[in-house]
Specification:
alpha/beta, Rossmann fold, 15% strand, AlaDH/PNT_NAD(H)-bd, NAD(P)-bd_dom_sf, alanine dehydrogenase activity, EC 1.4.1.1
């Protein structure tokens, strides 16, 4: 409701809408000094920003600072970045000191905590399954604004960064499975697609999301028989339409999963990052019923294990055998193709990084940008996602309330 009064020609407009606040239009833009340190997480070969991505940001007025050697595993040289207009510095500490926005692939490790500057913006993956309290407490103590790849969601419900990396993970999962089915790698000695007169391998994919879609596409392309299992019938209907009924589908319950596992040569855990799993979907008993030499690829391991027998592995030691089944449980699968994955990550990130420079401040950006606000998990010394509060035991507040009250 609105009241107008003639007090010195002043109009009073009283708004009662939830979270309403006066927004003063301004042409002021936040100056962004964007820093890209070299990744120190074991087996992480990607870089968060390619030289072409750096050039785009520099042309838009950003100052881009990158640590020497950050792109070496992707075959991006220091000269490539310098030619793109970025400043190449010799240490991670200098990158952090010179930047108000830090962009990483993996979240910072303890060795990097001291480098974080108060009120910085940190954009990176979060890896919910590996979050430690000391990391969260450091962010809150330094009032870091944390934006996670896993949470950046557009108005239409898409997770563009997760989707981009999931496409790679799904495709690679089939390449990896084919490799470990080989006799020399302890597999059943099966060619994934078979040949004339010899049937193909049976591939069971648990999860009808982006990883599942690209895994199914790659498996079908090689000639394998594919079954997709999911809890949501609508997702399965979409898959049947997408693949012109070339795949089999089943509802994700204990009966169908156990039945599929008995004849599977490959099982792929491709649960959605949004799936709230209280326990692994596939029990150890079911894994014990699989054929010797079969292969499990647990793509979901960086968020939550899909198989009860899963344990995190690494690119340097990617597999272990349990109950005669080869398990591949590497969290950062896309790092195996670091150059492609870095391009994909940069392409997905650039629209959100450029958004930051369109606003007067980080609070203004979060208030006006739905996707950036959705991606926020830490702000002004508070957690803003309940899932992190549940994991850490620390209190949280809704980011909308923090922004509205301008804490």
């Amino acid at each position: 409701m609105s009241y107008t009064s003639d007090f010195g020609n002043l109009d009073f407009d009283i708004g009662l809408e939830t979270l309403e606040r006066v927004i003063i239009k301004t042409d002021k833009r936040m100056h962004v000094d964007l820093g890209v340190p070299k990744e120190i997480t074991p087996d992480e070969k990607r870089v968060a920003l390619t030289p072409s991505g750096a050039q785009i940001l520099v042309e838009q007025g950003y100052c881009v600072c990158i640590e020497k050697g950050a792109g070496e595993h992707c075959n991006f040289t220091n000269e490539d970045y310098a030619n793109a207009g970025a400043s190449v510095v010799t240490s991670a500490e200098e990158v952090f000191k010179r930047s108000n926005v830090i962009v990483k692939v993996a979240p910072p490790l303890p060795a990097e905590f001291d480098y974080l500057q108060r009120n910085q913006v940190l954009v990176s993956a979060l890896h919910l399954g590996m979050v430690k309290n000391d990391f969260i407490e450091t962010l809150l103590k330094k009032a870091i604004t944390g934006l996670a790849f896993e949470f950046i969601e557009t108005r239409d419900g898409e997770f563009p960064i997760v989707r981009s990396l999931s496409e790679i993970s799904g495709t690679l999962a089939i390449h990896i499975a084919a490799k470990y089915l080989e006799t020399g790698n302890g597999g059943r000695g099966i060619l994934l697609g078979g040949i004339a007169g010899v049937p193909p391998a049976n591939v069971v994919i648990i999860g009808a999301g982006t990883v599942g879609q690209y895994a199914a596409q790659a498996a079908l392309g090689l000639g394998a028989h594919v079954m997709v299992i999911d809890k949501e019938l609508n997702r399965l209907r979409k898959f049947q339409t997408l693949f012109n009924r070339q795949i089999s589908t089943a509802t994700a319950n204990d009966h169908y999963i156990a039945r599929a596992a008995r004849t599977a040569d490959v099982m792929i855990g491709a649960l959605s990052p949004r799936a709230k799993m209280m326990k692994p979907l596939v029990s150890e008993e079911v894994v014990m019923g699989m054929r010797k030499g079969s292969v499990i690829i647990d793509v979901s391991i960086d968020q939550t294990a899909c198989f009860e027998t899963s344990q995190r592995t690494s690119h340097s030691e990617p597999t272990f055998v349990k109950h005669g089944v080869t398990h591949y449980c590497v969290p950062n699968i896309p790092s195996a193709v670091a150059r492609t994955a870095s391009y994909a990550l940069t392409n997905a990130l650039i629209p959100f990084l450029t958004k930051l420079g369109e606003y007067a401040s980080i609070s203004d950006a979060l208030w006006k940008s739905t996707s950036l606000r959705n991606g926020t998990y830490a702000y002004k010394g508070y957690l803003t996602k309940k899932v992190l509060s549940d994991l850490s035991g620390l209190a949280y507040r809704e980011v909308q309330m923090l922004l509205a009250t301008d804490l």
